[in-house]
Amino acid sequence: MENLLILLGKYFLLITFLYLFGRTFVLLSSQFMGKNISDNYEVSGINIQILYPIFGLFFLGNLLFIINFFIPLKNNLIYGFFLLLLVNFRKKISFANLKKFFISYSPSIILLVSSFNINFHYDAGLYHLNNQKWILESNLVKGLSNIYAAFGVGSIHEYLSAILWIDNSYILLHLMNLVYFSFFYGVIFYALFVNKVSYYKFSFLFLLIYSILDNFGFSGGRNGYLNIQSIGKQDAPIAIIFLIISLLIVSAIYKKKYSEFDTFLFLILSLFIYQLKVSGVAIIFIVIIYFYFYFRDSDLKIRWGFRSSIIPSILFFLWSIKSLLQTGCFVFPSTFTCFSFEWVDKDYIKGIEDVTVGFSQSYNFKGSLIVWFQQYLSNPTNKIILSNFLISFFIILGIKLFFTKFLFHKKIGFIFIIYFSLSILFFLRFGPDARYLVGLQMLIISSLGIFSIEKIRIPQFIFFALFFISIISLPRLDSYNSFSLSNLPSIQMPKAELVTRYDRYYPKEGDQCWVNLSCSSNREDYFIVDKSFFKTVYFRN
């Protein structure tokens, strides 16, 4: 029991720290914009406090990557950030508001059971952990992608994960991942049970049903809903933020409730998705739609929209510069965004781009779409998820038609059609891998609930039951089988058997280096020059 309390304590401290850090970010940014934002402030019907942990991750991650331009991120650096929390004393925290936050987030404690059988993902040993080690041991490295190509698509999660190497079990890396799920279910709980925001009622109801259906169907289910991934993957966080920000923006457009600060927050969350993974750039479609109606339907001045974008634009610029220095490209490995520098080999980048396009099963819009689709379905995972998604979709559509009146809002319907169409085209071209489509699939399901009105009264306890069944069923059965009151969850670091190659190490079997800066599975010969402010990686030939 003591060990379980330790785990709960770690999670509570992490959530509390991110809450306060996110609140710090909101207080500082609102002051910069000349706004007086309180904890009662609502963003499209959702209390801003529910968003604080995500803003905390965003704020912390961006501070870390900026600092890493100049110095390595040692583990103890995180303790310095506690000083920033003093900003919270500038505005009193209401106990009533704080209670709403913890009530909304508390059900997700159930998800901690996933900690008892969590492990590193294959990609963690391939490049994630070594990337984080570079962040801890060095300031920004020019040409880092020459060591291993995947370093070039580094996520802001690498910076956040790096400073959490303060626990020999690495469990904090998993707990940080659970924060996103807590946020997701926190939004749902707040909307359904705390403030009862009717706009989201059936959108979230259908998502809960969708999550339960994920456990049934072909090959055991898997319809494209969220799953708790192994350490080293951040597809679920991207899907969660993609869904939530899309719903918040559509709500703002529908209600014609535009504000300078809401616009700022939408841009911040959109940038965060992109920083998590470049595929998150698909969020730009709904942002463009938002700005169209923002200037068309509101009396807000253009300069207010400009002011909202100052901080996101600066951070986007710095993030792009980071990528340019590490890879030679603004968006690696898209060759049309690349430039010629002494540490850049465009042939190498083109080779990586070709491999990436092939791996992502993208459609080039040149050959037969039918032939491509047949090839796409030849992948068993794609076929299973698409089949189960369609089954889930029609089941939920049937529930909608039976229990609710079908309402169609012309403007919002048009927005969804445009948004879905552009997003589908984007993913077709740049990677329709099943794990990239989760956010879009969830948005399609949730859109069925927009503007639904009860035709047959649904008791509140049904919503409660579905909510808790959804949370309980998210961790897989083997997590519950591994649950123990006597053992503290621990994740051990494997060690690779290495051989000498060139003047460095190379995995004897496979391609995982795990944590060893002198190791790379890159077959190219490279060397590192450390004679200036930035270390620089060159190919030997």
Description:
There is one protein chain. With 541 residues, the chain is mainly alpha-helical. The protein has one domain. Helix content is 56%, strand content 5%. It has 20 helices and nine strands. It has helices at 2-32, 48-67, 77-80, 95-105, 122-137, 156-162, 171-194, 201-213, 235-255, 260-276, 284-297, 302-308, 310-327, 346-359, 369-377, 380-403, 410-430, 438-447, 460-473, 477-482; strands at 42-43, 46-47, 141-142, 404-405, 453-454, 498-501, 504-507, 526-529, 535-539. A three-stranded mixed β-sheet has the order 3-9-8. The protein has a two-stranded antiparallel ribbon with strand order 1-2. Strands 4-5 form a two-stranded antiparallel ribbon. The longest helix is centred in the first third of the chain and has 31 residues, at 2-32. The radius of gyration is 23 Å and the shape is globular. The model has no long low-confidence stretch (mean pLDDT 89).
